[in-house]
Amino acid sequence: MIHIVRSVTHPTRNQPHIKQTKTELSRRDIELAAGILNHLPEGRDDDFLFGGDAPLSYTQLRRMLNRIRKDIGFEETIVPQRFRTTVLTDIYDTTKDIKKTQAAAGHTTAAMTLKHYVKGRNPNLNTAEPVSARYGLSNA
Prior knowledge:
Structural class: mainly alpha
Largest sheet: 2 strands, antiparallel
Distance between the termini: 50 Å
Strand content: 5-15%
Number of strands: 4
Strand order of the largest sheet: 1-4
Helix content: 25-40%
Number of helices: 5
């Protein structure tokens, strides 16, 4: 379980700025799959997930993201916001549950999640087939 209790930004791209989350819903617990635990560092309950007792600096964060990009063979730049958008889109694509996706994002409304984070991946989705099937029609 990850306990999100504060927010970290890098407004000057230098030292991290630690602050409260935007809203009360942003303070939340996120369950983790058992298989992920092997890849996370051990720490105390009040530690940052990466960095221990202090969050990563902007430079440390960029270096980590560049290592990930190279390890997976991704050619474009990886930034935290893009990663967040990808994960939230994956959650929605898998569950088709906007409320679960909203909860994972820590948003107060589903509209916020849909507007800013859940991105469609297949613009040519055939909607005629599911509608036809639902109403017992053939698509001939």
